[in-house]
Amino acid sequence: MTAAPLGIVELGEVCARLRARSLDAFERCGQWVTSTPPGELQRLLAEACHRHAWHAELWAARAPAIPPVDLEALTAAPRRPPADVDAYRALLDELANELDELTSRVDPILDPSTTRTIALVRTDVASIRDRLP
């Protein structure tokens, strides 16, 4: 069964949800950086922090500017930052799965911007996940 194509209103909701998750990860990684001893893990968390902030910007820029989509209101919905590194690892896995599913719903010819955003974020998520201890 083929997944339904991603419509413009749903795209706005997806962008808001992924922006919120990126902001959560950014916030938590930033907190962990300051409480992690210097070393490889601290460097990875600092890099992840920057990447998640950039991902939030990418999703905000990709969100359609149409009346049914209020990016700020949708992003402000209750959020769940990961509580610990295991929860962060699970978040990265969930993000990877969601991005993989989105890839199958976006037509790269009709929506190259979303396709590119997904590819950039997916690459970063996999890189961070693969390097977590």
Notable traits:
133 residues, mainly alpha, 5 helices
Please give a structural write-up.
The structure is a single chain. This protein is mainly alpha-helical. Helices cover 71% and strands 0% of the residues. The protein is built from 5 helices and no strands. Helix 2 runs antiparallel to helix 5. The chain is globular and about 45 Å long. The model has no long low-confidence stretch (mean pLDDT 92).
Write the layout of secondary structure elements.
Blueprint (H helix, E strand, L loop, with lengths): L7 H28 L4 H23 L8 H5 L9 H19 L8 H20 L2
Helix pairs in contact: 1-2, 2-5, 4-5
Order of helices and strands: HHHHH
Number of helices: 5
List low-pLDDT spans.
none
Nearest-angstrom radius of gyration? 15 Å
Helix content: over 70%
Content-based structural category: mainly alpha
Task: Describe the global form.
Answer: globular
| Major β-sheet profile | none
Strand residue percentage: under 5%
Mean pLDDT comes to: 92
Distance between the termini: 37 Å
How many strands? 0
Task: Please provide a brief summary of the model.
The chain has 133 residues and is mainly alpha-helical.
